[in-house]
Amino acid sequence: MLKGRHLIDPMDFTVEEMAQVFDLADKIIEDQRKYADVCKGKLLATLFYEPSTRTRFSFEAAMLRLGGQVIGFSEPGSSSVSKGESIADTIRTVACYTDIAVMRHPKEGAPKVASMHSDIPVINAGDGGHQHPTQTLTDLLTIRSEKRRLTDLTIGLCGDLKFGRTVHSLIKAMSRYSNNKFILISPDELKIPEYIKEIILQKNNVEFLECKNLESVIGDLDILYMTRVQRERFANEDDYLRLKDSYILDCEKMKKANPEMMVLHPLPRVNEISYEVDNDKRAYYFKQAKYGMFVRMALIAKLLGVDELC
Amino acid sequence: MLKGRHLIDPMDFTVEEMAQVFDLADKIIEDQRKYADVCKGKLLATLFYEPSTRTRFSFEAAMLRLGGQVIGFSEPGSSSVSKGESIADTIRTVACYTDIAVMRHPKEGAPKVASMHSDIPVINAGDGGHQHPTQTLTDLLTIRSEKRRLTDLTIGLCGDLKFGRTVHSLIKAMSRYSNNKFILISPDELKIPEYIKEIILQKNNVEFLECKNLESVIGDLDILYMTRVQRERFANEDDYLRLKDSYILDCEKMKKANPEMMVLHPLPRVNEISYEVDNDKRAYYFKQAKYGMFVRMALIAKLLGVDELC
Amino acid sequence: MLKGRHLIDPMDFTVEEMAQVFDLADKIIEDQRKYADVCKGKLLATLFYEPSTRTRFSFEAAMLRLGGQVIGFSEPGSSSVSKGESIADTIRTVACYTDIAVMRHPKEGAPKVASMHSDIPVINAGDGGHQHPTQTLTDLLTIRSEKRRLTDLTIGLCGDLKFGRTVHSLIKAMSRYSNNKFILISPDELKIPEYIKEIILQKNNVEFLECKNLESVIGDLDILYMTRVQRERFANEDDYLRLKDSYILDCEKMKKANPEMMVLHPLPRVNEISYEVDNDKRAYYFKQAKYGMFVRMALIAKLLGVDELC
Fold first, then answer.
1. C228 has binding-site annotation
2. What is the mean pLDDT of residues C229-235?
3. Is a pLDDT exceeding 80 seen at residue C169?
4. Does ipTM surpass 0.85 in this model?
5. Which residues of chain A have pLDDT under 50?
6. Distances (CA, A) of A152 to A175, A182, A197, A222
7. Of all helices (H) and strands (E), which one includes residue C112?
8. Where are the domains of chain C?
9. d(Cα A121, Cα C269) in Å, to the nearest integer?
10. Residue A230 has what pLDDT?
11. Which CATH number is correct for B134-289, 3.90.740.10, 3.40.50.1370, 2.60.200.20, 3.30.2010.10?
């Protein structure tokens, strides 16, 4: 039963509960019109203590496409709600006006604190470098929809594997499904943290391989999940310049990839995927954004318990 | 007849007109669904020349819960509408697009000026330290709903009585109902202004008492209206530190209060009410926020004249 | 067929296509209720990379009055969508969530670039000093509605004719209708650019006259289109002070005007039209703002192809 629940950590839901969300997303995709009014009379609060236009748009579009309405703020300046006020008081006030809240906050744990004082469901839309569970739902729905399974996949994760929260969450989430294998492609400076390897991968007997070169492994992948390699992560400019090209996906590298391989990216992309790749039918990153809206529709409907109306 | 009227000063409405708003609020609370579409096709403009997320949320939620829609801006930066343009021109343009407007402005009198040039109802959502009439409506609806009367009450007002516009408006408004008595609890630095005592209280033969100590009078109160004591109001830090604890409500002080006493606060609260008090059934300040939304629903419906549809 | 088209340049539509938009606007004005739900289930994105509250309000009100919904951002600060991301990627993401987009951008050409990568219609809501096609549609609908024709008119354009993009677009647009004549009233510093005279007016054999004095020609005009004369356009303060009064419209000058002359202004007005003129029945500039909303309703409905439902 997901009605009335919060979503703070990508692992808050069991595999079965995630399947419920994905199943509903499938139905929405199949017949969107049927769900066009299920949230009539419901209000979503979008509490963005730091700007994230893409994520905010996705949530707001999701709620509006379910027939609900939205109030909110989109950056710190407008959040007078927070001036000297505790997160607890803010969410209790917001809960007087709305039926469900989405919170983005620069501080880790803020959405968790909110959920502890809230009568309405709270969704974490990103808290610092910590969690971003609806990105994980997006990634999984995209894979499930396009590959027709969440098991038996070889998943390449490429770029900044040290700081990327989407990558860590994706590994955790996909490790719960059987027989997936990870290929972790990054420069030494940006390798996956040890705790992910120990606690998630080794403990669960998940097969993985670390390497530095995308080109050498791209042929083995069912999924290539690209992330940004940021200049500021490197101690010196030379290292950055020497390394960055290895982690840029272009048509040349795509030639060596499996014809069924999917390229994913959480967006925004800067230059880690060449524009020329956009026309390759294996480029799924914009379609992925669309799945992001659908999975949020399903999530909101589930947490509000309105999907039973259909 | 409230249709087409403005609300700029809390005293713009007669006691009878306020009763009409409260009666409608009662009906909305009783059967919210009945009013879910009365504002279909109507547009509210929220013109916030200074941020006030809480007040804006309350108005926007009110309009959306009536089936209307909202456009607006939420802080000075986005109000290009105002660049070099007069308030008169702004409201005349806004009136081309919308059916009713809410204005928050740092300058006293700005909403009044707007109302003088507007074909659509204008609601003052706070103009500097001047007026905030919907806070007063909120306070009165809360008292009326929970105490079942607006007369024969002993009302304690505690904290900063000098600068608090909500306190001044509440005194004015409650002085119009028979047999209310005020206990004004504040340090010398933050006593109620003389004009309030002379023009409002003495002139209307309203009983009142000034004192410095909350604990000594809390047992006599039907209502305790708390406000913030701001550090910056004191000439020196020592005075602030010496005095602040006397004006912090905690469970210890609540023990001496009447079992039926209501604690109200316009929010946001900083530290003038201890968090431990939140669990006391006499703490009404979050419920008060909810009444704030309902009274705004009633107000909007009345000014648009759509309540007659029900 | 306007369905699925973009509107970037005021001249993107033929005279016939503009007539389709105006005809629909007429119908909407006649029976707004009939169109109250034609955009149900549709989402408009308002992408304002620089603030323009008036234009944003007009578009948002238009969409909401058609029964559609709106998501968006209203100033650069909140547009994290754009952080390091190309306009192409932004619009492709936005197109995942919405059905039509409006873009305001400080850089000339940005909406054009967006339209080239977009699956959904893109409307230019102003790009730098370049184009603002819906202002031109507004101006033409106002003239057509009030004068019952777009031909055989003597149009005075007064003030800053050098930098005013609305003036340039209005000249281009009105030059496509037969027998219109322009009187171009400005100080030497702010004369119409040569290319407008050569390429638009002379090439199309459109009659025009340049002069410096409003009072001497006001009696000849069917339409007087006022624009702001900005202090910062002048090399020295003396020139500004010497000239500014000649370009301020007041009741004294209105006495010499034709009793049927229309005064238009794109707003915001600063001091180029005295407030006393507002009460003159020939002052149409606020009514013009209202036509602006109606023409945007018609435009959105046409680009989405939903007007055929009525």
1. yes
2. 75
3. yes
4. yes
5. none
6. 11, 11, 19, 9
7. helix C110-116
8. 15-131+292-304, 134-289
9. 47
10. 75
11. 3.40.50.1370
